[in-house]
Amino acid sequence: MELRQLRYFVTVVDESGFTRAAEKLHVAQPGVSAQIRQLERELGQPLLDRSGRSVRLTQAGSAVLPYARAALTAVEGARCAVDELTGLLRGSVAMGMLPSCAPLGVADLLAGFHERHPGVEVSLTESDAGTLLDGVREGRLDAALVAFGGGAPEGIATQTVLDEHLVAAVRCGDPLAGRDTVPLRALAERHLISLPPGGGMRAILDHACTAEGITPRIAFEAGDPGVLADLASRGLGVAIVPESTARDRADLCGVPIVRPRLRGTVALAWRAAGPSGPAARAFLDHARSSLAAFAVAPS
Fold this sequence. Notes:
This protein has helices spanning 3-15, 18-25, 29-43, 59-86, 106-116, 129-137, 200-212, 225-233, 243-247, 278-292; strands at residues 48-49, 56-57, 91-97, 120-126, 143-148, 156-171, 182-183, 191-194, 217-221, 238-242, 252-258, 263-271.
């Protein structure tokens, strides 16, 4: 049994297929398949069910997976221990983010870390908040920029980057533009412009509507709050966006939503137990420092 085989197996599981795993590993797909078949022969059981359109773990594969992850983590830990003694930082770190978090200087954050630690491989993944938080809990991500309402999820430590009320953003000639506040129920008959399902702000809106017995009329969805603002400024509906997004636009009026008042938090999230190694610790320190410059105090 080789570490390479275990790494290929774990990557196929994480990427939900051989094609994406091969791309991530920079290895031809037949090579990945061959190594996993060799691993299965050595263990005497199939680890992956290849009969469907997607690859799934068999019962044996589910039993082997945590040990494969532990073996790879142990090897990386041994390398990191030696690197710490020699003063060399290397390895890999993985960051995740919501698509709407790109304006928070993520590119500068990653470039700055790479400049300081060129021996560390850095990867970035975009997904919805739930998937990102699962990735952090399971160790597939070292940190992630996520949005949520209320307190931090269990097992997750956070540093708040944005903490704002959500507003109904409309163009200045809209009937809502002159109001000080708008009850959520008053938006039930309006065409809403929102993030897609899975995003933190969308989850806050959906939960509030469910609690009020309202079915929102979502007319447009986009992953970037700036695009939502653009659509609202052209009179296509009411955009549900953070207060700062509307405040920065001269062509929009942001009306606070009340009864209930909606509030969202964007935060850097990592495992409450702490980073898994020196590279992850260095990255987390760098990310927290970089994102502190973007922090918006609660309104």
